[in-house]
Amino acid sequence: MATRRVGPDRKRFGDYVIVEEPLEIRLDGNLVATTMRTPGHDFELAVGFCHAEGLLVDNGVRTIRYCATGSALATRYNVVTVDTDRPSRKAPTPRLGLTTSACGVCGSDAIDALCDRLLPLDTPAIPEPAVAGAVDAAVRSAQSLFTKTGSVHGAASFNVLTGELGPVREDIGRHNAVDKVVGRLQLDGALPADGLGLFVSGRASFEMVQKGWAAGFACVLAVGGPSSLAVATARAANLGLAAFARGENCTIYSPERSR
Question: Domain tally for the chain?
Answer without folding.
Answer: 1
